[in-house]
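Subject: for your reference before the review

Hello V.,

The reviewers asked for a structural picture of the protein, and I figured it would be easier to keep everything in one thread rather than splitting it across files. Below is the amino acid sequence we used in the manuscript, unchanged from the supplementary table.
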Amino acid sequence: MLCEHCNKNIATVHLTEIIDDIKKEVHLCEDCAQGKGLSFKKQQFSLQELLGSLVAQVAESKGEDVSGEVCPVCGTTFADFQSKGRLGCPADYTTFKSTLIPLLEKIHGNAQHFGKVPSRADRGLAAEKELMELKQRLADAVKREQYEKAAELRDRIAKLENERKENTPGKTDADGTD
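And here is what came back from the structure prediction:
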C-alpha cells in the first residue's frame, strides 16, 4: 500500500481514529508521518526478551527462586535459559521442569503436544498414546477395586503390546529370536 500523502513510498505508519463510531484510517510512509509531526519509536522484537520475561513471570508467580539451578550435564543455569531463550541439552528439561511446565502451559495452554505429527509417525504415536491411556485406566480400575474392568484393560494392553512387538522390525524377544 502506498503512502496516501506522497503516493511514492510504501506506507509503514498506519493510524486509525474512531470518533462517534466513525472510523478514519490514514496510511503514511515514515517521511510523511514525520513531516506531519508524528513521532514514533521503532522497536525491535526480540523473542529471547519475550521468553525471558515470561520465564521471570512464571518463576515469580510460583514464588520459587530458580536462579541457582544448574544442569548437571551441560552446566546451563536458569539465568542462561532466561537470557538466551534456549536450553543447553535434553537434561535441562528435567532440571528446570518445575518452571518449564507452567511456562509451556502459559504459552500453549497445555504442556502436552496435541498438534499435527508427521504421517509416518502418526500410527506409532497413536498406539503409544493409547497404551499410556489404557495403563492409566488400569491403575485407576485397580485403585477403585474394579477387578473385572482391570482384567479387560490388562488383556487389551497385552494385545496391543504384542501387536506392537510383531510390527516393529528389528525387535527381538528375550531369547534373541524375531
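For the response letter, the relevant points are probably these. Residues 47-108 form one domain. The chain has three domains: 1-39, 47-108, 119-167.

Happy to draft the paragraph if you're swamped.

O.
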